[in-house]
Amino acid sequence: MGRLRVIEAKGTERLKRGFARMVKGGVIMDVTNAEQARIAEEAGAVSVMALHKVPADIRKAGGVARMAPIEKIQEIMDAVTIPVMAKVRIGHVAEARVLEALGVDMIDESEVLTPANPFFHIDKREFNVPFVCGARNLGEAVRRIWEGSAMIRTKGEAGTGNIVEAVRHVRLVADNIRLIQRMTDEQVYGVAEKFAEPYLRLARQIREISGLSERILENEPVYGHYTYREIVDGLYKILLGIKKLGRLPVVNFAAGGVATPADAALMMQMGMDGVFVGSGIFKSSNPEKMARAIVEAVNHWDKPDVLVEISKEIGEPMKGLEIEELEVRLEDRGV
Amino acid sequence: MLKVGVIGVQGAVSEHIDATKRALEKLGVGGEAFWLRRPEQLNAIDAIILPGGESTTISRLMQKSGLFEPVTKLGEEGLPIMGTCAGLILLAKEVEGAVEGQRFLELLDVRVNRNAYGRQVNSFEAPLKLSFSDEPFPGVFIRAPRIVELLGDKIKPIAWHGDEVVGVEQGNIIGLAFHPELTEDARLHEYFLRRAL
Fold it and tell me: At which positions is D-ribose 5-phosphate bound (chain A) (predicted)?
């Protein structure tokens, strides 16, 4: 047998997106300690999100919400064999480097934490660890994918147990994709220009605050070392892929407000690849049962008769909040 | 008409369906690849693929869906089954690093270590040597299991990363530590489907 020279590549886009593909059809659960992580694993979670507090408690506590303490994340990594994800603040490159060095399997650049960068998200292509980012609409999703996100999730409205915002976001992305599919490539290019505008706007804002001329030349960078035209070309390429595929080129999960098995099934019926459940499990009256029920609901989303059985005797779901009565809207963070 | 079911409870199912379709086309064989989620779908099936995903979740959901026992039985009776990554773990006779109470189909005489290559940061791509082709194969290893030991002489290596065995066959069963479904290269799917012809 002839011997091959062993060459290994790490942190490639294929490996990052591939990791996300392996969690498809699964449930990713927020956990705050080793015991909750083990409950999630036993219930059949495909991954856990290591957090200091679940979103409902972040809401109550107020103050600056940051990356979870390292000891907590380590405790959770040691407790389970399934992959462990953890959240960083939007644009907080240093928190992300810490989590990458710690060895978490995926980083969530999340609006649930207090944003660190008022202008831009992290350039995720500079990392070996894959990222997941939230999006409320196709523009946000495409910008995050261009920045290197290997997975997208709806933002929903985390910590509310209210599915309405997640439904809105799924709908907006899906309808926008159908519109793209009816466009000529030239029109799609126009969309790419539109979607690239926030980068331009934010770069202008920085100049204005600094007392500089707002005019940005063609060859001047607006995000990292990328010029506006380079960003438009990048977004255009992604949009053409979306036009051809009829869906995002990366795995897309639902998040923010999933509180019952029926909520999870609804998200799958709307074409999601899986769900994140935050406060919905450990703020319910019987987390073990609720966790198992949601895992099974994602598996049997198209079988109402099975959902009937799954939804029996699962106890009280989390109480839930009206969106209109919220003081802080997390989903508005990060465009 | 080949009927190929990809166990569709969790993981990279659509990728295997696409790869199977490409392989059928290359082989010039009519057939279909579909999401296999219910025991009734096992009637008159020609081959089964166990995809990558989370082996703990897939094992649990296969038991819940009533797929676990009948798939094991079909494998024992000689139906071609291929497992990739988590699928390899599910097929293995012995598993190091299993979660307590986790069950396996035990159709392949191998011992695998579930998280031997480490976490996602240690995931890698590397060219592999195949037993049946001179061209290297693009190996995609994502939180892959390691084949620690071949148990007995019925089990044969079919893929190597350097000196290390990363793919095996035993009669009708194939187990791969990596993900051919994440590449455009359908040679392993073709190799597998030939046993169903």
Answer: 30, 159, 257, 278-279
pLDDT at site B196: 95
**Domain presence at residue A54:** yes
User: What domain range includes position A248?
Assistant: 11-186+224-325
How close A135 comes to chain B (CA, Å)?
23
Tens-digit pLDDT profile for residues B102-150: 999 999 999 999 988 999 999 999 999 999 999 999 999 999 999 999 9
CB atoms A3 and B163 under 8 Å? yes
Q: Is residue A207 part of a domain?
A: no
Quote the minimal CA–CA distance from A309 to chain B in Å: 12
At A96-112, the pLDDT tens digits run 999 999 999 999 999 99
Residues counted in chain A = 335
Beta bridge partners of B176: B84, B167
Q: Which of B85, B161, B169, B190 is catalytic?
A: B85
| pLDDT of A2 strictly over 50 | no
Distance between CA atoms of B195 and B184, rounded to whole angstroms?
21
> How many domains, chain A?
1
Read off the CATH number of the domain in which B51 is found: 3.40.50.880
Q: What is the DSSP string of B116-136?
A: TT-SGGG-EEEEEEETTEEEE
Is a pLDDT exceeding 60 seen at residue A218?
yes
Taking the CA atoms of B186, B191, B192 and B193 in sequence, report the sign of the dihedral they define: positive
Mutate to test the interface with A, among B40, B57, B131 (most CBs of A within 10 A): B57
Q: What is the ipTM of this complex?
A: 0.97
